[in-house]
Amino acid sequence: MGERAKWSSRFTFILAAIGSAVGLGNAWRFPGLAAKHGGGTFLVVYLFAMLVMGIPLLMMEIAVARNFRKGAVESMRGIKKGLEPVGWAATSNAFVIVCYYAVVFAWVILMFFNSWKFAGMTKDSDKASALFFDLTKTTGAIKGSLIPGGVFVCLLVAWALIFFCIRNGANSVGKVVKYTVFAPVILLLIMAIKGCTMPGAGEGLSMLFVPDVVAFKDPTLWVDAIGQVFYSLSIMMAIMFAYGSYLGDDANIAVDAMIIAFSDMAVSVLSAIVMFSTMGGTGMLGNITASGIGTAFIVYPQAIVNLTSIGWFNAVFGAIFYLMLITLAIDSAFSIVEGVSAAIADKFHLKPKTVTISVCAIAGIISVLFVTEAGLAWLDIVDNWANNFNLIVIGVLECIAVGWCFSLRKVLDEINKNTKKFKAPYGWFAASVKYIAPILLVALFSWNIYSLFHDNGGSYGDYPIWAQVAAGWVVTVLVFASGFIAKLIVNNKKKKGYVEDEVTWRES
Hints:
By secondary structure, the chain is mostly helical. The chain has one domain (10-494): Amino acid/polyamine transporter I (Up-down Bundle). It has 20 helices and no strands. It starts with 9 loop residues before the first helix and ends in a 14-residue tail after the last helix.
């Protein structure tokens, strides 16, 4: 297999990690949650959750992978052989996520190429909000199997872009992120300037930044803020293990993780400024929703056609908005594939590029399900289980693995290996990994289970129970069984001469 690929520079790694962390959730879910929970109130709790949970777990994954020089699966086995299934669960769940994330990416591409249609919809909010449904032909229910040609073409484009960006692993990723990380920031700044100069923008910005003290009492505020931090940093998805494994011994993980986390938060806040100022300027502050797809494909098109009375200007602004989403989505999409590919290649001694081709091909075939007329419904179900249940359990298991089955002091020494001015304190790091993070994640998981069974009678949405079982519970079982299935494959390969790598902690 040759020598393991490495990042060309520290800056490249930081850009790649920021690109992975900053995704569509920053642009549409963060502003929606801020609107739901009193603006500034949500920002305060989000910052708290970032400091006590997000940053320590980000440091943990990068440091473990950097030392072992392995992806998620082998890194977990390096900690303790019996923990390998935890790495497989993270890898399998990431594979599930990229199957439908690529479709959302395709939808964004589709909207970008059809942005010119906003020119003929000036002040027609109903027509603008229906554009997405007209293009995708989605029924919003488990009904319909036809695949619109335009959506399918955009899906092919999405997968082609994903593969192009990671075709040579860290080398090609490093070349791409120099452009794709800065592009959305520039586009967001353009939209922020436009939004902030509109009459009524001040009301929106006030709603965003002025805390509502009463909102602190709402338990869903804490649940949503903790969840957003957890989902936003690309942790527990095999990504940071892959990216960390490409780091050299001279990397300053303590400082780099802080830069990554706060850059992620900065883009989220900038996205919120765009959303609140634009919605305030168009008199639509009450329309902001925590639903990402609803915000991007229904609410924002309404705002676009109400920006001005000049149709072509609105269309250009719409194109900028969806181009921004494209640049956000692509980094996150290819980073997920890279995390999966690195884990599999490491485990089975395969060529990374060969694995990447296979992962893209298999995930691409599966993703066709989500571009059918029933695709949005299937996507909603899979996404709910993958994020609200699977990802959280994986987070708890990783915390137990590193915090209780390994030496936190060794991991912290790896984090602080090359830092002089800033060192992560042991008390803060240990308290987070061993106690605070797992407790918060267990609470988040319990809340989601309570909401599902107590508030909704065990049913998610209005979808048929059989569909929820097939796309939800069965997928969850497969995710957590993947490690044991892989073990059977390994045992069979051993009979043919396969030998597992020795994965041991490298002392400084």
